[in-house]
Structures are given as structure tokens and as C-alpha cells.
Amino acid sequence: MRIVRGLGAALTWIAASLLGLVGVVLCITVILLPLGIPLLKVSRRLFGVATKLMLPRAVSHPVQEAGKSLKKRGRRARKKLPG
User: CA 22, CA 5: separation in Å to the nearest integer?
Assistant: First the structure.
């Protein structure tokens, strides 16, 4: 699964860089500036998605992972308490 996520992140990163390059070229031509700025924003979001794909789940979703570990600790603590 880690290889698939890494491959997906690499492909997303490549797509984001190509989209960013097209956005920069469109921004250079003043007439196409309204098309270039949104493309640069989409490219930035794709870079963020690629970064999240490369990170482990505990780093990319800290609140969900903390909730899972706290539930497990709560169960263990209940078992240790006297009835």
C-alpha cells in the first residue's frame, strides 16, 4: 500500500508541476492572466495533496489517530480499575 501511495504522490507532484508551469506561462501573457492565477492555485493544492500522500497517516490525520489511541488507552484503563 505504501508503494501505491508513493506512486500516486509522485504522479500528483508531476501533474502539479506541469500545471504550475502552464499557469506561469499564462500569467506572463497579460491577456491570459485571469486563467493563469486559478491554475497556479490549483497547482498549489495539488502539491499539498501530494505531500499528504507521502506522509504517514498519523502525521496527515493527527486528530483521528489521537482519537484511536485514546480509545485504546481508555479500554486498558477500564480493565485495570477494580469492579
Answer: 26
Cβ atoms of 20 and 43 closer than 8 Å: yes
Residue whose C-alpha cell is 505531500: 51
- Coil, helix or strand at residue 35: helix
Q: Whole-angstrom Cα distance, residue 37 to residue 75?
A: 51
Cβ of 77: how many Cβ atoms within 10 Å?
A: 9
In angstroms, the CA 47 to CA 15 distance is 9
CA-closest candidate to residue 50, choices 15, 24, 3, 21? 15
Q: Name 26's Cβ contacts closer than 8 Å, sequence gap at least 6.
A: 32, 33, 35, 36, 39
Q: For residue range 7-38, what is the model confidence (pLDDT) as tens digits?
A: 999 999 999 999 999 999 999 988 999 999 99
Contact 52, 32 (CB under 8 A): no
